[in-house]
Amino acid sequence: MPRHHQLATPGDMHRNPPKSKHHKTVHPGEMFSPSPPKDHLRVAIMNINGLPAKTTDGKNECLRTFLTENRIDIAAISEFNLHWSSLEPHQKLFHRTQGWFESLHTTTAYFEKYPVKRTFQTGGVGVWSINKSAHRVSNKSGQDKSGLGRWAWSRFNGRNGMHLRVISAYRPVFNPEADSSVYAQQKAFLTANQDSRCPRIAFIEDLAKDVTIWMAAGDQIILGIDANDDVRNCSLSTTLQELGLYEAITEKHGQDGPPTHNRGSTPIDGCYVSSGLLGLQCGYMDSFVDHSCLWLDLPMTTALGHAMPNIIKPQARRLKCNDPRIVAEYNRRLVKLYQEQQVATKLQRIHALNGSGAWAQAEVEYEDLDSIIVASKKTAERHCRKFKYGGTAWSPAFAANRMVTDFWHFVVKLVHGARPNVRLYLRKMKKAGLDIDWRTYTRAMAQTKLAEAYAAKKQIQKDASKLRRTHIEALADAHIAAGMEEAASVVQNMLRRERQRQDARLIRHVTGKTRMGSVPYVIAPNQDGDLETMHDKAPMENACLDENKGRFSQASHTPPLQPPLYSCIGALGISPFSDEILQGTATLPPNLDPNTNRLLQALARPPEVPPPTPWTFTLAEHISGWRKARESTSSSPSGIHFGHYIAGTYDPLVAEVDYLMALYPYETGYSPRRWQVGLNCMIKKKPGNFAVSALRAILLFEADFNQNNKRFGRAVMYNAEDLCLLAKEQYGSRKRKSAIDHCLNRRLTFDMARLRKRPLAVCSNDAKACYDRIVHAIASIALQRVGAPKEPIICMFTTLQKLRHHIRTIYGDSEISFSGELWAVPIQGVGQGNGAGPQIWALISTPLLNILRNEGYGVCFKTAMTQEEIKFAGYAFVDDTDLCCSSLDETATPTKVAEDLQKALDIWEGTLHATGGAIGPPKTKWWAISFAWDAGDWSYATIEDSPATLSVRDPHGVQTQLERLPAHQAIRMLGVRLAPDGNNDAEVAYLRSKAKDWAERIRNGHLPNRLAWQSLQSSILRTLQYPLPATTFTKQEATDIMGDLLADGLNSLDICRKFPLDLVHGPRRFQGLQVPHLYTAQGTDHISKIIRFTYDLTSLTGSMIRAQHEQLLVETGLDPPLFNQPFKPWKKAVTKCWLSHLWEFLEDSHLTMEDEGPSQTMKRENDKLITQLLVQDGLEGEDLLWVNRCRLWLQVVSLADLTQGHHAQVSDSIWSGAAPCSWNKHIDWPFQEKPPKKHWDLWRRTLDRLLNLTQRCLPESHHLGPWTNLPSNWTWYFDPVNNLLYEQDKAAWFCYKRLPGRSSRRVQMRFPTTGRKQATPPPSHAEPASISTSGSLLVLSSHAPSVTVTRPTAPSFQALLDTQPPSLAWAYEFGDSWGKAPLIAQALREGRLTSVSDGSFKTRFGTAAWVFETLDKLTKMDGGCIVPGHPSIQSSGRSELAGLYGIAAVVYLLCKYYNIQEGAIEVGCDGLNALRDCFTPGFTASCAKPHFDLVCAIRTLIKRTQIKWTWRHVDGHQLDDPFLAYGDLDRWGQLNEDMDLQAKALLHIMHHDRTLQYRIYAEPWTLWVGNEKVSANTPDRIRWATDGPRCIARWNKHHKFGTASSNDVDWDATEDMMDSLPNARARWTTKHSFGMCGVGKWMLRWKKRTTADCPHCGEFEDAVHVWLCHSQAAADQWTTALADLEAWLDKHNTDPALRELLLTGLLAWRNNHLVPSSIKHPILAALQGQLGWQSIFEGRPAMGWKEAQQEYYIANGKRQTGRRWLSQLLIQLNNIAFQLWDVRNKTLHSNKCDLAHEVQIQDVLEAFSSSHEHSVADARHFFRHGLQTVLDKQPHLRAAWLYKVQSALKGHTTENSTAELQQRRTLQQQQQSIRRFLGATRHAPQAPQAIRARRVPRPTRQLPTRRYKQRQLPRYSKT
Q1: Positive or negative, the Cα torsion across 175, 179, 182, 188?
Q2: Which backbone phi and psi does 81 adopt, to 5 degrees?
Q3: In whole angstroms, what is the distance from residue 807 CA to residue 831 CA?
Q4: I need a surface site. Which of 907, 1417, 1651, 1670 has the fewest CB within 10 A?
Q5: Using one digit for the tens of pLDDT, what is the confidence trace for 1786-1799?
C-alpha cells in the first residue's frame, strides 16, 4: 500500500523518507545531489504503486513535489493503476498536471480496451518529459503495439541525427489466480487472440523485437522497467544484454545492490541503457512509495550531442484587466508616480515646443518623458498582485493560506537556529496577518503550526472551486461598484468565461489543436553549407538572425532600391519626384524596365482623391480602440504590454497621457527610440518542419506603435473604400469581403468556361514572402495615392528601417540583434504582425491589378442576354492571387489564351518585382482549359490535346517553367480545393479525412458528452461547413462525409449509432437533434449568397452569378423564374454548374426561387419557347440533351425562329440543320459543334411529334401572327404595294423586282438575283419576309406585317401610381391626396421636404402609415398600407420598415415622374433599428436577419433616386406621458403621433385574414416555401423545409400523432421549448420521445442488461413505461410533480378551464381513462386527445392552447402572451418527465438493482451451467473453486473472471473453427481424388460467367464432418 499518508509535509519527503519494517537502507550508488550537474538530464525510473483517482488526494502533490525537488527531467513511471479514459475530465492527466511544471510532455500506455471499466485498473506506464526536455520530444512517441500498455516511449531529438529513446515498461508478476492482476489481463488477451504464451515470456519476446528495431534506427536507449524479477540474473536481462542493453546501476556498482522494493530481497527495478551510456552517474534513492527510485544523470552531450540551454517560459502578468480592483490599484499607483514626476506638465511642454517649431528639443524631451512613463508603468504593475500558486484555482483564501504557510516555514527555520532577519520577519508576519513573537515558540510548537497550515491548505484545495466562485462573485460586486456592468451578467459572464476556457483547453487537447509555441530547434546551413540541426541558444539565434537578414533584404536588388530610381524617390517615398509620380507628371528615368514604368504611371493619384490633409484621432477613439483590444496579445520588447494601455483607459489622466504620447508621432512623423526594437518570433508553418527557411517570423512591435499602425491602416482603407479606389479583385482586409467569396468566384469562373465552351487559362501564383519584401518607398506612394498624409507614413517606415531585430526562441529573447540603419539600403518589408500590413499590401496590389485589367488581360466576357461586359484580372486575397485569361473573341484558340496569360503573368511578375516582391515557381500552378469535341459531344481537352507552357522569373531572375495541371486536378486556394471540371473529389477526400480524424480523437479522448457536442458544433462542423458556399457536393457525397463523422461520433455524444438520421438531422422545431446535414447546409449557403449578391449589384460575385444565370437561360431556352421550372427533365441535359446544382437542390427540397433576369424575346404573336414545349411534352434525359444541342447549334429560341418569317412552315435550313439562325446574334451563344446525323433525325422526329407538323407546316392552332419584336438585323423585307423585295446587307440596302407572272398557293413570287440593285431603305409598310432560293431565283416563301408596341405615357402622377405592379402599389394602397404631388415634388427638388412614418402591429397583423410635409407646413400628403408577409413573421419592427418603404416608394415614383435629378428629404421614425438598417452605410444583405426583404428593397429604392437622404430618430408614444400634451411636442413628434393613430385605424378597419404574399419591388431574388415567401431566418426555414418533413415522417412512422396529423401540432411552441432547454436536455428529450434510450428494452438489446424489466415494478420497460409506471415511487413522484404544476399554473394566471383540462388530461392518460366530455374547451380537448396526451407531455401540444390562454389574458387585461405561457408550460412538463427518469435511475442504480451486478450474475450462472461442455484446459480450471466463490467476489473481480473465461473460450473457438475448416478442405480434396480415380467425376459444361453470377445457390444443410466420413468413404472402398 502507498504510504504517502504518513508524511508530515511534502517538503520533507526526500529528506525524511518513510520506513517500514521491510525497508532496508538503500545503497546510494553515486552520492545523490539534489540538483543534477550542469548540462545534464536527470532520468528517474519509479514504480509509484498507483495514483488516486481524486486529484485532491495528497499523493498527487507528493509526486509533483518529488519530481520538482529532485530536479527530474525525464520520469519513466510504471503502475499508474488507473484506467484513464474512465476518469472524469478534471481527473485526467492533462488537467491533473496542469500548472505542475513549466512544460510537460506525457506518453502513457495502459490496457485501454480492458472490458472491466472502472477507474482502478492495475498496470499502466508512462514517460514524462519535464520542462526543457519536453521541447526535445519528437512527434514519434508511442506505446506497445498490442494495446496492452506494457511499455511506452518518448523519442528525443539531438544534434546531427542523434536520438535518445526513453522507455518505461512494466513486466507482470506471475499471478494467474488474481482475477484483475496485470498478468490475468494480459493472459486473457493473449488467449483470446490464439496466443498461448505466458505473458511474462511474451513481454520479453515482443519487447526484444521493438528494441531491435529501435537500435537498428541508431537510437540510444534508456529502458526503465519494473521487471518483477532479479535484474542481476534473469531471462529478461539475458535477452537485453544480447541486444546490447545493460543494467546501468549493477554494471557500475556491482551485483550486491539492495532490494528496490520494501518487502523484497532483490533489485526488481532496472535501468537498461545502450553501451554508449554505461558508466554514468546513477543509483537508487528513497521515494514516497514502496519502490526505490532509480536515477541516472545523463550528460546532454552524450545523449543529444549538445548541452541544452534552459528554456525560458513567458512570465505571467501581474496586471490583469479583468479585475477592476487590480486596474484601480494600478492606476492609483501610476497616477501618483505621474504626479510626482510632473508627467502632465512635461507632456504639455512637448506639444508646445512642437507647435513653436522647436522639434529637436521636443524630441529630446519626448524621449526623456517616455523613459519616465515606462519605468512608472513597470513600477505600478509590480504592486498589482501575486501570481497563482501551484495547480489550485486562485482565491483570496488560498493566497492568505500561502502567506501563513510561508511565515511558519520561516519561523521553523528560526527556531532551528537560522540567523534572524528582523525586517524580513516583520514583512512576512504582516503579509500573514499575524502578530506573534517567534522567540516564544518551541520547535514542536512551530512544527504544529506549520502542520496546521498545511492541513488548512489541503482543505482549501478541496474547496478550491467554491472559493473561486465566491471570489468571482466578489469580483462582480467590484465591477458593479465601478459602474462597468450589471450585476447578474457579471457573475454569469465570468463563470461562463472560466468554464469556456477550461472546456476549450480540454477540447483543444483532445482534438490535437494545441497552440504551437516557439521552435525547440532549427535546421539550418552550417559554415560548410551543409544542413545541421541546431539546438543550442547561440547557434539557433544566429541561424534565425541570418535567415531574417536575408528575408528583409530580399528586395534590395529590385528597381526601387537601385539607381537611378532609388535616388529619385528616396528610402521613404517622400520626395519631390514622388509627388510628381502622384500628380502623374513625373519624367521617369531612362532605361527603366517597362514594368517598373507601368507601375510608376499607375501610382498616379486619381482625380477624385482630394488633396491630403493631416490626420489625427481623438481621445475617445484612443480609449475605444484600446478597450476593443485583446489583453493577451503578445507585443512590446520593452515589457509595456496591451494590459497597461487597456487599464489606463479607465483613468482620465493615464488615458490622456497615453493618448498624447501616441498622438505626437502620428501627427509629426517622429519615430521614438523605444519603438525601434522588435522581436522576431520563429514559429512553424507546418508541423514537423523545422528548417529555418520554412519558419514563419512573426514580428512583435511595441504595443502603442502597432496600435498606431492598426489605426492608420484602418483609416486608409476606409478612405480608399469611400473613394472606390481599391481593385475589385482584391478581397483581403476589406469589410464585407471574405475568402470564401473569392473561392466562389473561382468556382463561377470555371463554370462560365464550361457553360460557354470557351478556353480559359488560370495561374495560381505564390507571392514569396510578400510582407517581408515590400519596398517602403513604393508602399509610401501607394498610401499617398489614396489620400494618406505623410506624417504617419514617415513615422511607420522610419521605425521599420531603424528597427533592431532580436530573436525570441524557447530560450528567451536574444541579446544579439541586427539592424539595417547603417546599410546602404535600409531594411525593407513591413513585417508579419504589423497592424497595417494587410492594408498596405491591398493598396500596393491595386495598381498591379489595375494595370492588367486596363491593358486587356484577364477574364473578359459579356452576359449572354443583356451584354453586360464583365472584366477582371483574377482573384486576390492579400498575397494569394489567381490570374485568369479568356477572350471575347469567339475564334480565340487555347494557344492564344495561354499566350495572353503568359503576357499577363510577365506583367504581374514584373510589376510585383518593382514593389520588391517575387513569385515562387514551386508553389505556382496553372491550368489551360479547353474543350475537345467528338460527334457533337464535348469533353475537357487533355494536356496532350492542347499543348502549352507557362513560365515565370523566379526570385533569382531565372525563367522557370511552371507545372501545368489537368482539368480534373484540384489545388487548394484559401482553404478550398476546386478543380476546373467541377469535380469535388479532392475536397470530399479532405473533409472525410478531417471528419474521421475528429471522430477518432473524440472517441479515444473520452470527452464528456457535453464537450463532445460542443466540439462537434464549434470545431468540426465549422471545418466541414467552411467550403460549402463554393462546393457542389451531391447528396451522396455530403452523406458520405457526414457518415464518417456520425459513424463513430454519435456514441461519443451519448447517442446510439443507429439512431435514425432523420432525427439526427431534424430541426429542433420538430424535436430533432439538429446536427446539420452538409447537403442542406450547402444549399442554404448557396441561397444566402444568391440573396446577398443579387442585392449587391456592383460586386464581382453578383456579376458572375447574373452572368451564369443568363447563360443557363440561353442554354435551356427558358424564361425566368428559372428555378420555378422542373429540374428533373434537365438533370442530364444541362451543363453542370453552381446554379444548376442549386436548381436541383431547390427541387429536391420542394423550394422555389423567383429569380430576376432577362426574358427570351417573343418575336411574333402566338410565339412560344421551343424548350418549354419540349419539357411539357415529356422530353427529358438524353433525348432532351441532344435535341437541345441541335437547337443550340441552330441558335433558335422560339417558334418564330423555326419558321424564319413564315407564319406556319418550318424553314428548310432549320429542318435540315443546314445553317444557324442569323438574327439571334445579340445572344452570346455557347459554342456547340454540329451534332451528327442521328441526332438531326431525332430533332426532326421530335419537332414533328411536338408540333404535329404536316409537311413541315404548323397546325392552325400554332400559326404565328404579326411580328411584335422584329430582329434589328432581319435581312429580307417585301413591299406588297410595289412588289419589290428588299435585302439588308450590313449597312447597305438592295432591292429586287418580281418576275412577271401570277402567284398562287402553288406558285410563289420569284425574284431574279441578276436584278439586284442598291436602294434606299424600304418603306414603312414593307413586311418582313421569308426567302428561299431556287437556282438564280429568290422565292418569296411568306411575309407578315410587323406590329409596333408602344407604351402610353402616364397623363398624371395618379395614373403612374395606378399602373405600378402590386409588388410596389401595396406601399401606397391607402393614399388619396395625390393632387398635392406637384407641390411635394417641388419641395423635394428644393430640399424642403420632411417625412414621418409609423407602424402598428397586433396579433400577427401589421399596418403602417406615412406622411410628407413641406418645411412651411402648408402642404401635406399621406397614405398607409398593409404590411406584406406571412403572419408568422409580422412584428412591430416589420411594420416600421413597411412605413419607411412607403416613403421610399413614393419618393422613387416622384423622382421618376417629375425627373428629379437632385434634391433632399429628411425622414423621421420612432424605430431606431429600422432607421439604422435602412440608412447606415456598410450594409450587407443577410438572409439570416429578420425582414431582410424590406430592408434590401428600401435601400435599393434609395439608391435609384439621386437625391440626398437624411434621417432622424423620433421618440415614440410621447403622449403616454401624462404631463405632455399634443401641443407640447415638436412637429416631428406630432407627425409621429398622427401616423401612429392612422396606422392603428388601418389595423382596426382591415380584415385580419388578409395576407399579402408577393415579391416586394426592388428586393433581391426571393425564396418560397410553397406559397409562403421567406422573409426572415432563412437558414431555419430551409432546414424546416428540407430536413423537417423527413423528421416528421419518422415521428409519424412511430405513431407520435395518434389519429391526428402533424399539422395539428403547435410546432412553434415545440420550437420555443426546445430552444429554451439546455443542449443536453434537448438531446435527452429527442431520445426519450423516440424511445431509443437507456430503458430496459434497449439495454437488453444492447446486451447491457439481462432483462427489460422496470426497476420499479418489474414490468416490461420502454420509454413510455417510465412515464406511466404505477409503482409507488413513480406514483409519489407524479403526485408531487402535479402539485408543483398546479401551483405553477396558478402563479402564471392560467385560464381555470385550461388548468382543469390539462390536469384532467394528464391524469386520464396516466390512468388509461378517457377525458370527461363535459370539460370546457371540448374542441381543444378532442384535438389533444386525437394527438394523445403523451404528445403534449413530450412537448408536442395541439393547436389551440396558446390561443385560448391569450384570449384569457386579453379578457383579464394581462400583458402576458399565450405563446410564452405555453412554451414555459412545456418546460414544466419536460421537468416532470426528467424527474420521473431521475427517480427511476436512482432506483436502478441502487445496490439492489445495479445493472452491472445483474449482468454479471447472469453471465456467471450461464458460464457455470455450461461448464461441463468446456473441454478447453485453459477454461476448465476457472471453475474449480465453485459457483459460490465466484459469486462472492467483488464486482470488478467477478468481471475480470468472466473476461478470462470468455477469452479462453474465444481463443479455443477460433482455433477450432480454423482447424475444422482446414480438416474439411482436406477431406474434400481426398474425396475428389477418389472420384477421379474411380472415374466418378463428371465435368458439367460451364455456364457463361454472367449467368453464373446471377445464379442463387440453394441453401444446403451442413452435416458434421465425422458422420460425413462414415457414410461416404466406405461406399468407394467397396468398389
Answers
A1: positive
A2: 60, 40
A3: 14
A4: 1417
A5: 888 775 445 556 66
